[in-house]
Amino acid sequence: MSITEWPMDDRPREKLLSKGPAALSDAELLAIFLRTGVSGRSAVDIGRQLLTSFGSLSALCAASEQELCGHAGVGQAKFAQLQAVMEMARRALMEKMASGNALNSPATVREYLRLKLQALPHEVFVALFLDAQNRVIEFEELFRGTLTQTSVYPREIVKRVLHHNAASVILAHNHPSGAAEPSHADETLTQALKQALALVDVRVLDHFIVAGSGVLSFAERGLL
Fold first, then answer.
1. Alpha carbon 159 to chain centroid distance?
2. How does DSSP classify residue 33?
């Protein structure tokens, strides 16, 4: 049965307008994004199938063009639209961090880093450079590695901090393998960077590990 034949209150778009987006299931939100179904299957049916195939909404949003376009009802146009939506979300979060105290919005920082790093197939080490009011000056990818490791050089991070005239920094890297737990090497590196940056009077506010949809904070773990 087509969605247009459903009772008005059950239709995803009408439900969103009357009750708000939080009232919709993941499949219903996807149905609004997809707009139309295919022969014999509604947009909600396709949404459910995509979620089953990818395992979660975050994994679906992180899928490559080849992975996503291999499913019925999703082509290059839909993939491009999804990428645009994700980029708008990232830019909106960056604007929020740049306009206020990042320490007052830890969830915003966490979500921004998750959106930036969760889909990468290789390991990267990045930094958010902050001013004296804890407003984000810039986000930079500093080092890139393989699936399992990356080489991080404290001297290069100090140079970038001085370049941005940053008062503090939030560090982050991803674990493409999917485990968010810090390794001994992660902890040792964090302490080395903290000591190196202290020499130029720059604080390390946190170090995050992004693994899939999970984000671990060194500060919350008492590792800083």
1. 26
2. H
- Structure tokens belonging to residue 131: 């001013």
71 confidence band (pLDDT: 50, 70, 90): confident
The CA distances from residue 118 to 52, 112, 114, 122, 123, in Å, are 19, 10, 5, 10, 10
Contact 214, 179 (CB under 8 A): no
44 Ramachandran zone, left/alpha/beta (phi>0; psi -120 to 50):
alpha
Q: Is the dihedral of CA 112, 116, 122, 123 positive or negative?
A: negative
The closest alpha carbon to 65, from 56, 76, 57, 54, belongs to 76
> How distant is the alpha carbon of residue 151 from its chain centre?
22
Which residue is listed with tokens 């899928």?
Answer: 63
pLDDT in tens, 129-182: 999 999 999 999 999 886 566 788 899 999 999 999 999 999 999 998 778 888
* Pairwise CA distance, residues 217 & 222, whole Å: 9
